[in-house]
Amino acid sequence: MFDFAWSELLVIVLIAVLVIGPKDIPKIMYQIGRFFRRIQYMKFAMSQQFDEILKVGDIEELRKGVNFEAPKTDEKKADGE
């Protein structure tokens, strides 16, 4: 996802220690963790609501019937060989 090398990550941590201070880093890391946990929960809740809507609307059977995978084709047959 993000392409960070260890040296770049070390520079970011050093700058954070200098700017924020070593005493406040645990508090900020806790707040960042809570933020990402909330986002993850919101994603989970939205997917649960979407699944519930599908069940209530009887769309579940339609969703199961649709094949979202690419069809498997035989290239030799498609080329006419």
C-alpha end-to-end distance: 42 Å
- Report the count of strand segments: 0
**SS strand fraction:** under 5%
Q: Tell me the Rg in angstroms.
A: 24 Å
Given as residue ranges, the uncertain stretches (5+ residues, pLDDT < 50) are none
Label the overall shape.
flat
Instruction: Characterize the biggest β-sheet.
Output: none
Q: Output the number of helix runs.
A: 4
The overall pLDDT average reads 80
Order of helices and strands: HHHH
Characterize the structure shown.
This protein has about 80 residues and is mainly α. It has a domain at about 20-65. It is built from four helices and no strands. It is flat. The two termini are about 40 Å apart. About 0% of the residues are buried. The model has no long low-confidence stretch (mean pLDDT about 80).
